[in-house]
Amino acid sequence: MGALYETPPPLHDLKVTLLRSTTIHPKERKERRLMFLSNIDKVLNFEVETVDFFVANSEFPPEAVVEKLRSALEEALTQYDFLAGRLCSDQKENGRLAIDCNAAGLELIAAASELNLKEIGDLEYPNPAFGQLVPRTGRPENEEIKRGVGEQPLIAFQVTSFKCGGFAVGITNNHITFDGISFLAFLRNLAALAASLPLPSPPFTDRRLLSARSPPLVAFPHPELLPFPTTTTATATTTTTLFSSPSSHRLSFYLFRLRPAHIATLKSKAAAAAAAATSFSVVAAHLWRCKALSATSSAACKEEDEEYTLGYAVDVRGRLVPPLPSAYAGNAVVGARASAPRRELGEEGSAAFARLVGRVRGAAERVTDSYARSAVDWGELHEGAPRADVFISSWWRLGFGDVEYPWGRPLYTCPVVGPQRDVVLLFPVLGGVEKGVNVLVALPPEDADKFRSLFYDFLAEDILTN
């Protein structure tokens, strides 16, 4: 557990059997409506998979958890009516992607594994086999579904019991439904309903607060956004899969663990920065540098004077004027983009690192109300997606593992991911954020040793003994 660098685990089959599937409908149905989706929502039309592991609880065996979830979800869908809906084209808005809140329902699956929880191994390593613990909604590969018109559930749950009495709760949801902050609020509300308590944060579901201005006003350049080529078949409802990679079959997962002492080392190296460096900014700068300098393939390797870019999401709830409601249920994130010549990323010393940290912080500082509104308006004029040479997706401090369910807090929470060249994932270590952060990187095998060397050497300490 002390090592930062690990190879994929040997366990590939969790021996899971699906027992039954139930469609959950709202306990009280609201009037059917078409739910407006913002230009931010539309870009995020892909699935996110999360799994929570729980130890055995004699008061809540897995079957009881399934029943509690069923009842809580029925109540939750009364407030979150869009979760029981389906994607559609709004013909009154020129075929714009929307959600038909038609109470079609979500799926709740009961499953069982032949293994004990301890047999799975290291829960912190996002084993691709964890995909057996989340619902596979089976998006059909036909053009109609790709355009967002079909019977695809927007969210589904799977409770998988283990022989020891422990269990996992896997969730597959379309990112259109939530960003990280609103997903956390949903989980807290669901936990409260399962405990027969009132909602701590009733959702605000009117996403027109993030609609484009009329006429759109793109007041800033947006190099963080890449417009798609215009074709005769392109429509406003074409699915965007931001994290796809044509060479993903050549990539492997590598997990690095940064303990508090390592983060403190990075902060001390960034002490020359004008403002106090945050944990995220120093970790992001370190990973940005490692990714840029370790790239060897012709597609990823750049000349010394070429720009190498870093992208990450910034929550705009409190940056807008007026601010969005804190209970806004939807996607309220805008891409931040830092850029530096590869030569600068290769410069050594604390002063050079401090400059990179400043670039990371500056990217977020540029996301003001005016900038965010300009980005939303850009999406009204273009079909496109965020772009950067490397994206950092941070689950580090979202707090999914802190949700208190009637059957207890998760032993561990992690994403189920596929290896992609341009995404680095941050998520908590076992024991909570105060114990540090896990860094998951997908790399071509030929880049792995160079990345590891850069990662270790810059910390300039015996990482394995901390």
TrEMBL record:
Which GO terms are recorded in the biological process aspect for this UniProt protein? double fertilization forming a zygote and endosperm; regulation of DNA-templated transcription
Q: Short name of one Pfam family for this protein?
A: Transferase
**What are this entry's molecular-function GO terms?**
acyltransferase activity, transferring groups other than amino-acyl groups
* Domain of life from the UniProt record: Eukaryota
UniProt GO cellular component terms: cytoplasm; nucleus
Q: Which InterPro entries match?
A: CAT-like_dom_sf (IPR023213), Plant_Fungal_Acyltransferase (IPR050317)
Q: Which keywords accompany this UniProt record?
A: Acyltransferase, Transferase
State whether keyword Transferase applies: yes
Similarity comment: family membership: Belongs to the plant acyltransferase family.
What is this protein called in UniProt? Omega-hydroxypalmitate O-feruloyl transferase
Query: What organism is recorded for this protein?
Result: Ananas comosus (Pineapple)
* Gene, per the UniProt record: LOC109713662
